[in-house]
Amino acid sequence: MPSRTKAESFETAAGCPASLPEAAELSGLLDELYRLQERLRFVHNRERERETVPAELTEVDNAFREKLEAVARLKQRLLEADLENRRASAELADLQEKQKKYQTQLRNVQSSREYSAVLNEMDGVEKQIRVTEDRVLSLEEELETSRADLKQREESLPGETEEHEEKMKDWRAVQRGINEELEAARQEIRDLESRIRPRERAEFQRLLEKKGGLAVARVVSNSCSACHVKVRPAAMQALKAATEIVYCDSCRRILYYDAQNP
Predict the structure, then answer these.
(1) CATH fold of 54-193
(2) Structural class in CATH, domain 23-49+196-256
(3) What is the pLDDT of residue 105?
């Protein structure tokens, strides 16, 4: 017996077999499934092509992207440095207030022991003030330098963008052409899916995911085009009669026989 499941291989989620379609209906279903698969694969491949910059333009594109990323990193670092500077300045103000408090206490101490204790506290605060002042100064210098750098980069960016787009214009035209092809293909996919019953579409989708995007395999020279295993004569008869859904004995994909292109 051929490896086939009439339409029983297109099962419902509950496992109940679907009714067997008429020959013309089954043939039409297989035509649509095969075409749907072709269109899905076309979209996948063309999207990948659209996003893959040609080798001769890769260096140009990478250099421009690095400039954009450098500007983005600089802006992010400016935000971080500004926040750090605000915190360090607030910390410095607190330390300076603490220093004033100790200076007041020092004038009012009554014993040498208290005087020594306050003096030690003041010494610790003054060391913290010096460290914090250095940090504030360093951050302010970094902010000044980074702002100047960002200003220069942003002023250069429009010209660099124009230059980049000029070098990429032919590729952009190719990408626009691909987008037009993709839109037409996606519309055809929507039309095809609307004509396929949900149960059969779900089984097709399950096979697509399981079989790496190839659920339906054409029979070419009496062999499965996916795994190249010979289709048995009885299965070929069922395929040509278009009365049963036939699966490849080896790879378990749906077999599709195109009588116009055997």
Answers:
(1) Helix Hairpins (1.10.287)
(2) mainly alpha
(3) 85
